[in-house]
Fold:
Amino acid sequence: MILVDSSVWIDFFNGKESPEVSLLYNTLGKQEIITGDLIIIEVLQGFTNEKDFGIAKEVLESLPFFNLSNKELAVKSALNYRKLRKNGVTIRKTIDMVIATFCIEKGIKLLHNDRDFDQLEKNLGLDTLTPS
Structure:
């Protein structure tokens, strides 16, 4: 099971070539790709064209869906953030902290193209799917 971060979906829907987008293409249909509420928000809010919005919405809604946070995960996300800050690491976006904590707690791999997740992999053991 793989959660694909908005950083990869945005490139995917914009037709941008990257190792992460290629990995997404190669993974579709071979492994279970999931999505979540925060990722759908981040991806869909950027569309200005209604047709493109509709296509992206349809694709994302076809995937297994998870709520990426609840009370327990919110507290764990805050604890993880505080742990990193004590070690001199600052994560720029709260949503990234929530996504990473969800993946860590559920044992789900993350496909991303965002440097904040590199720190979460290094310092918290986030399991990521990386292009070879």
About this structure: The chain is about 60% helix and 10% strand. The longest strand covers residues 33-36.
